[in-house]
Design a protein that fits this description.
With 398 residues, the chain is mainly alpha-helical. It is built from 17 helices and six strands. Helix content is 59%, strand content 8%. A hairpin with a 5-residue loop joins strand 1 and strand 2.
Length: 398
């Protein structure tokens, strides 16, 4: 089946690879029902498709059909089997998918989906991450704007997108309004907005005076409108990110695998939820730790031709899963001596930070996979490699 936004092309082949039926269906509830009925009437039991989610997949699985996902990059390479042109054609791609299921079935793994709870958690985690990326972009735009019209506020507080920075911009959006401030007035305003920072008002006021002056002419009011617009966007993003974080925490609390991911060092709540969401809770999806490592892209790819052998970065991977594992691994070294030693050893071998993080993530995969398969929380006292490192540190200290 060649999936598309508005309609889908279906091709059914027999045991010899001959197309015995080919048709299109609309992406509607009625169209999907007709498609499933026609597949079942033809005796179809397995379907090759390029994507693993959506209403089409739901309809196929609900009908008891086995779904085999073939990545679009693979389909692109497989076209050369059937012709030299390699042109994209929906009807042709549907045939390629069907025939590959016939000829290469032993290489394909049936789609195994996580529970609806894990899928909902993945949606929430990815939505929060997208909003965080939007916040970074909006903060950068605001910073670029302020560096021209009001440089003093850019580095006034620790983060430009923090609540105190946004409150200051809403109250003092121009250089002219900020000129009204004295140390005493600034201290009174900070107390009024419940500023919890440890920076003395006199230091903050000195930062304002030391920075280049901003626009003060008649056009300052127009620049202020732009400043307030960016501040409003950032405040909205902060609010919605917090809402999603609360939702993620609530979903994680009731998931039966929560104790596994939250037991990992420096996992926290959002990071633990992201690990669980990207790995999922379908144990059959990763029969071995190597399968998880390869899909996550933390295992290197070996290429060999004649006497030339190269171990390179694995480009074909689940980027969300790789990012989740590497994000956890990079921070785990600050709380786990074994992780710190692996990372430091990799750096000593002249690997850069991303490469060293992937090496550490690959080592964590074996531990996470075993805990995940056995439904057990991570126990540092049973982590023999960690205990060996701790013993070495104790011996050196003694």
């Amino acid at each position: 089946m060649d999936w598309a936004k508005d309609d889908h092309v279906v091709c059914i082949v027999d045991a010899d690879g001959e197309a015995i039926d080919r048709y299109s269906v609309n992406h509607t509830a009625a169209g999907l029902r007709r498609m499933v009925a026609r597949l079942l009437a033809a005796g179809v039991v397995e379907v090759g498709i390029e994507r693993p989610d959506g209403p089409v997949i739901d309809a196929l699985l609900a009908a008891g059909l086995t779904v085999l996902v073939i990545a679009p990059a693979q389909v692109k390479n497989l076209r050369s089997r059937y012709g030299s042109a390699g042109n994209k054609d929906d009807r042709f791609d549907a045939y390629v998918l069907a025939d590959v299921v016939r000829t290469d079935r032993r290489r394909l793994t049936p789609l195994t989906r996580s529970t609806p709870a894990a899928q909902a958690l993945r949606s929430s985690v990815r939505a929060r991450r997208d909003l965080v990326e939007h916040r970074v972009a909006a903060a950068n735009q605001l910073r670029a704007h302020l560096q021209i019209v009001f440089p003093g506020v850019v580095d006034l507080f620790a983060d430009l997108d923090s609540a105190i920075s946004l409150a200051f911009l809403e109250r003092f959006p121009t250089q002219t309004k900020a000129d009204w401030l004295t140390v005493e007035r600034l201290a009174a305003w900070l107390k009024k907005v419940s500023y919890s920072g440890r920076t003395d008002p006199a230091i903050l006021h000195a930062r304002l005076l030391a920075a280049p002056r901003g626009t003060t002419g008649p056009e300052a009011g127009f620049h202020a409108q732009t400043t307030l617009a960016f501040a409003a966007v950032l405040r909205t993003l902060n609010t919605q990110i917090a809402v999603l974080a609360n939702s993620i925490a609530a979903q994680l609390d009731i998931h039966p695998d929560a104790h596994i991911v939250t037991s990992l060092p420096r996992a926290g709540t959002v990071r633990a939820a992201r690990l669980l969401a990207e790995i999922g809770d379908a144990r059959g999806r990763f029969p071995t730790a190597d399968a998880l490592a390869c899909l996550a892209g933390v295992a290197p790819s070996t290429r060999q031709s004649g006497k030339v052998k190269a171990v390179t970065f694995r480009w074909g991977a689940d980027k969300e899963l790789r990012d989740a594992l590497c994000d956890f691994a990079a921070d785990s070294r600050h709380a786990n001596p074994w992780a710190a030693q692996l990372y430091n050893n990799a750096r000593a071998r002249n690997h850069d930070h991303p490469h060293a993080t992937r090496i550490l993530a690959r080592a964590w995969v074996d531990i996470i996979w075993r805990c995940w398969q056995n439904h057990l929380a991570y126990n540092p006292h049973q982590h023999r490699a960690l205990q060996r490192v701790l013993n070495e540190h104790a011996t050196q200290a003694a």
